[in-house]
Amino acid sequence: MNEFLSTVESVNGEINGFVWGAFGLILLIGTGVAITVMTKCFQVSHIGLWFKNTLGSLFKKDVIKHSKEKGSISPFQALCTALAATVGTGNIAGVASAICVGGAGAVFWMWVAAFFGMMTNYAENVLGIYYRRKNEKGEWSGGAMYYLRDGLGKKKGMKHVGKVLAVLFCIFTMLASFGIGSMGQVNKIVTNVAQAFDVSALSSIQVFEGVSLYNLILGIAIMALTALITLGGLKRIANVAEKIVPVMVVLFVFGSLVVIGVNYANVLPAFGAIFKNAFCPEAFVGGGIGAVISKVVTQGFKRGVFSNEAGLGSSVMVHSNSNIKEPVKQGMWGIFEVFADTIVVCTMTALVILTAGGLNGGVFNAVTGEIAAGYSDATLVGGAFNSVFSWGGIGEKFIAIAMFLFAFTTVLGWSHYGSKAWEYLFGAKTTIIFRIIHVLTVVLGAVLTSSLAWDISDTFNGLMMIPNLIGVLVLSPLVVKITKNYLRRVKKKENIEPMYNFDPETQSAELTREVEE
Questions:
Q1: Is 68 helix (H, G, I), strand (E, B) or coil?
Q2: How open is the CA angle 364-366-371, to the nearest 5 degrees?
Q3: Nearest-CA neighbor of 17 among 279, 294, 289?
Q4: Number of domains observed in the structure of the chain
Q5: Cβ 296 vs Cβ 103: under 8 Å
Q6: How does pLDDT run across 228-261, given as a tens digit for each residue?
């Protein structure tokens, strides 16, 4: 077993070095920058509009009311399911890992990735709605594979390129659903639960090196819960997500604010460390100044993408199931998704770590890069919470529960993403096969080492990102055109035909549905 894992680690390291090298990072940030410029910084210039149509619309019936349309969900359910898949271990252990490897400065680069990622996610969702279609079950299907095939593939000389990239995207998505959407999440659940709620009678029994019976039992229990929900399809996943996600985010943010409030004197120094170390990293990161800055930037970008998934083309697969007609409206939910995930939740996590005990003490020493004894990147946030909620280790237990909910809902969301990729390749009637395979991989996360599970997730993310971003970048002029069409109708009140769908029949059906509503 150890020899096999060593081989996997070696192969994965080679691939990871390529996809997260200069090409991948330039493509990731470059796409976000290009769309930001082309839309005249939509995420800032129209901040009032997208806030009004997202957070400001949560009490409108057409946003939160469950859809009666087959295979369709409400915009709020789509957001919650997308957030279920994005707000996961990346927001807790991922931020901690980025800080441990790249220092406080990595947080700044997570913010940069998120700022431009808002527009990447916006573009993905606009294209997802515009290129979606009904499958053989009469349900909406959308995602990067469709705008690669029907959008990029319609460009001169790009027919076969579009088709090949669509197939590659689906293959990488299914692999990613086993990494970021299964093994990586479950690994962090088991690590935190085993430490916060230790059962020595089980944890003392080693099944094989580094894996206790307790870990294995936890993995099997999570696998059973996953099967109970995901095998019921999207509507069951969405129903669970809309109940869990808002509560878990509010509770985590509230708990974080308490920890930060108690350590309020360290807040400004923490922000100072983030900005200073972004460009002048501490010596503990190691290497020459160029290598050091590169490491900090890479960690920030990688963990930012792991957290909010902007650029992966993942959340578009659930946003495309929304009963909304306007591509731009669903695109604005994509902006809010990245904002809530990284700018709000990840920032809370970073401040909890950096303020608890001060910058040169506590659970993490930002000056020396040392983690307090007894903690790892997976349990760092729990230790920070314990510094305030110390009675009975309640802080650590709270984070273990939060990690469980965050990570478990991520597994649910990614089950849907992988099933839509499977559907594209093998048909809608066979997606139950994928869901069963996905459920079975859950237990692997309980037995893999933390670093390997995390590195595999990073690699699959990078592989999935490349074909998607090529499609988004090539089709960005269309995103601008659809955006202008919406703004002319909504803000300037011009009487022009909406751009709902690329297919004339679907466009006509959507216009008819608009009249009927």
A1: coil
A2: 30
A3: 294
A4: 1
A5: yes
A6: 888 777 677 777 777 777 777 788 888 889 989 9
